[in-house]
Every structure is written in C-alpha cells, then in structure tokens.
Design brief:
The complex is a heterodimer. By secondary structure, chain A is an alpha/beta fold. In chain A, 61% of the residues lie in helices and 14% in strands. Chain A folds into two domains: 65 residues, Orthogonal Bundle (Helix Hairpins); 215 residues, ATP synthase, F1 complex, gamma subunit (Pyruvate Kinase, Chain: A, domain 1), CATH 3.40.1380.10. Chain A is elongated, with a radius of gyration of 28 Å. Chain B has two domains: 77 residues, ATP Synthase, domain 1 (Sandwich); 52 residues. Chain B is elongated. The chains are: A alpha/beta, B alpha+beta.
Chain lengths: 286, 140
C-alpha cells in the first residue's frame, strides 16, 4: 500500500492549512467589526466638512478658489486605494479593473492620466501596467491615520493648483455589506457639493484672516478627509472580503479532506483484502 | 438665556462633542473668540489651544485641540479639529516623502519582481496539478 502513507500526510497538511485559514477568518471577522466602527466614527467629520464646503459655494466670496472652478480636463489624477496584503478575494482586482476602465475612458477623451496609490497592492499592480505614479503611501496598517495621507494628497493638490491635472478622482472599494463590496469612483476636484437647505441667498462669511487662505485650509482638509474615509472604508472591505475568502477556503479544505479520507480508506481496504488473499493463497499452496 | 447655539466638535477620526451651548470660546488664529448664539457667519482657522463650551445649565467643558477649522452659522458652531500636527513645512516634507516613495518603487527592477512572482505562481500551479493527478490515479 504505497499511496496510503502519502495520502495520510497530505490529509495532515491540509488539516493544518485549514486551521490557519480558520484562524484568519476569525481574526478578519473581529477586525472587520472594529474597522466598521472607525468607518462610522469618520462619518460626522466628512458630513460636517461637506456642509461647510456647500455653504462656501453658496456664499459669494470675491475670491474664487481653483478647487471650486470647473475647467476642461486635459489631465486627470486618480487616487487609488488598495490593501497592503493579499488573501482577500477579488477585492483589489475589482478596484484595479474599475480604475483601468476609468483610465481608458479618460485616455479615449485625450486626457493624460496620473496616479497616486495607497496600499502596496496598488503600487505593485500599477507599476506592472506602467502607468505614471506621482505619489504613494503604503503600510498603513489596520488603523490608518489622517496624518499618513497629508503628503500624498498634497502632491495631487499641488499638481491641481499648478494645472498639471484638471480633475482629481478617488477610487476605492465601497462597503455595501459583509458579503459584497464594490469599487466606486468619485470626483474630489473640482469639489462637488450638495444641497442648500434654507439658507438665504446673497450672504457671505466673515473671513479671518483672508478668504484665500481659509478656503485653501478647508478644501485641503475636505479632500484629506475624503481620502481618509475612503481608506477606512477600504480596510473594512478588506476585512470583510478576507473573512469570506477564508471561510470558503476553510470549507474547500474540509471537502478535500473528506475526499482524500475516502480514497485513503479504499486504499487501506484494498491492501487488507490483498494481504488476506495472499495468506489464503499461501495456506492453500501448503 | 432664551437661546442656545448648537456646537459640534468633530475630528476626522471621531466625534468629540455635540450639544447645545450658551457660549463657546475657541482659540482662533487671530486671537481667542467668544461665540454667543446668533453670531454672524464666520470662517476661521484654529490654533492649538482649549475650546471651552458653556452649557445652558452653567457647566463648562474643556477640549484641547491641536488646530483645525471653525465655521459659525447663527444657530450652529462647527469645529473641525485636526488629528495631525501640521504646519506648512511639515506638509511640504510629507509631500516630498510621498513622491520619493513612488519614485523609489519605480526604480526597483520591476521586471525581475514580475518574473519572480510569475515563477512562484507557476510552481504553485504545477504542485496543484500533480496533486490532482495523483487523486485521479488513485480513484481509478
């Protein structure tokens, strides 16, 4: 019975892999819960700053900030958020696919594209497809901090102010629920803003010190908070995707073990039968 | 004491305070600012310091902020606190670092990494095929 021992060791190795995937599943589940909390915690700031920007747009400052002005898109900047680690299903692949689709759309319109990547998976991928990468930030961990994005975002904002890009988009995974995450593309610049609720027209803020400086400060924070929120949401997606991927890996390992066990039993039975018949044959010959 | 003003203090990483106040004091860049209900709309930046919120029942809460932005509407004060230490020079340095990271990553021999990855994937695939073949053989 040559195969039996091999099968047994194979079963043992699959079992230990299964233990690992099971553990990873549970870790991802608990991290997901925390990531979701952080996602929720980041929401008030993003909402508030969006309202303020909305007010700003409705106010009538003498000064028009370039971040608010629409201009023809000759060059486009994309901030792509991905994970640092793999083993999370098709999450990153979907985000990259969506990014490439947008990139192609802009290129067809004759616009140049520049990327800014967050997460090492995006860095690896876009390096391979040879798209120009202007800035990157990787290894943020499970708890990204706003501080980590300041530099990366500034590179893109500077490019925007200097006219090297005319549009800034953000691509990240959107957390729909535990089972599904989908890539989304949002425009950051020029800033799109929402509803005007009950504010009288023709009014303005008092600006201290000056409108230009203040707008700059607010808009920079606005973009940073959007990117931060995207990153936090992406972490929640990563954990959810990993949890699901590891669950199916664990299940598959279970099926494989069952199958191998069956084969092993058969091989063992065949060997026993063979031995018995040999003994019986031997006895008859004597 | 008929009116109050709603105060929201938020940072990008969480909500810090939300509630009604009779008076709010904030460390604005041009000097400390006292905000009473029905204040005129105002925008300003904050420097590091303490925000004091006086609630209608006379209590006072203090919050430390390292800087941030402030919006005042007649019925509403919004403090957007920074979680990160920031200054023009620091921001600049962070931007330079981000650019460098991207450049360094591009300078690495991309082809070699691609080949190594592909080889690893190939090895894994070959191992899987071998394993499948063995199972198939045993089944027969």
């Amino acid at each position: 019975m040559a195969g039996a021992k091999e099968i047994r060791s194979k079963i043992a190795s699959i079992k230990s892999t299964q233990k690992i995937t099971k553990a990873m599943e549970m870790v991802a589940a608990s991290k997901m819960r925390k990531a979701q909390e952080r996602m929720r915690a980041a929401r008030p700031y993003a909402d508030k700053i969006r309202t303020v920007i909305g007010h700003l747009r409705l106010a009538n400052p003498d000064y028009r900030h370039p971040f608010l002005a629409e201009r023809e898109a000759k060059a486009v900047g994309l901030i792509v958020i991905s994970t640092d680690r793999g083993l999370c299903g098709s999450l990153n692949a979907n985000v990259f696919k969506q990014t490439l689709i947008s990139v192609r759309e802009w290129q067809d319109k004759g616009a140049e594209v520049q990327l800014c990547v967050v997460g090492s998976k995006a860095l690896q991928f876009f390096r391979r497809v040879r798209l120009p990468i202007a800035a990157s930030v990787t290894h943020l961990g499970d708890r990204p901090h706003v501080a980590s994005f300041i530099g990366t975002v500034k590179v893109m904002l500077d490019a925007y102010v200097e006219g090297r890009i005319d549009r800034l988009l953000l691509v990240n995974a959107e957390f729909v629920n535990t089972m599904s995450q989908r890539p989304q593309v949002r425009q950051l610049l020029p800033a799109e803003t929402a509803d005007q609720h009950g504010l009288q027209e023709l009014w303005d803020y008092i600006y201290e010190p000056s409108a230009a400086e203040l707008l700059e400060g607010f808009l920079t924070r606005y973009i940073e908070s959007q990117v931060y929120q995207g990153a936090v949401e992406n972490v929640a997606c990563e954990m959810a995707a990993r949890m699901v991927a590891m669950k199916s890996a664990t299940d598959n390992a279970g099926n494989l073990i069952d199958e191998l066990q069956l084969i092993y039993n058969k091989a063992r039975q065949a060997a026993i039968t063979k031995e018995i018949s040999e003994i019986v044959g031997g006895a008859a010959a004597v | 004491m008929a009116t109050t003003i709603h105060v929201d203090i938020v940072s990008a990483e969480g909500e810090i305070f939300s509630g009604a106040a009779a008076m709010v004091f904030v460390p604005a860049v041009m000097g400390e600012l006292g905000i009473a209900p029905r204040h005129a709309p105002l925008l300003t930046m904050l420097k590091a310091g303490e925000i004091r919120v006086q609630t209608p029942d006379g209590e006072e809460h203090g919050f430390y902020v390292g800087g941030g932005a402030l919006e005042i509407q007649p019925q509403r004060v919004t403090v957007l606190a920074d979680t990160a230490l920031r200054a023009k020079d620091l921001d600049e340095a962070a931007a330079v670092a981000a650019k460098q990271r991207a450049e360094e990553a591009l300078r690495e021999r991309t082809d070699q990494i691609g080949i190594a990855e592909a080889q690893a994937e190939l090895l894994r695939a070959v191992a899987q095929i071998k394993m499948l073949e063995r199972i198939r053989k045993l089944r027969r």
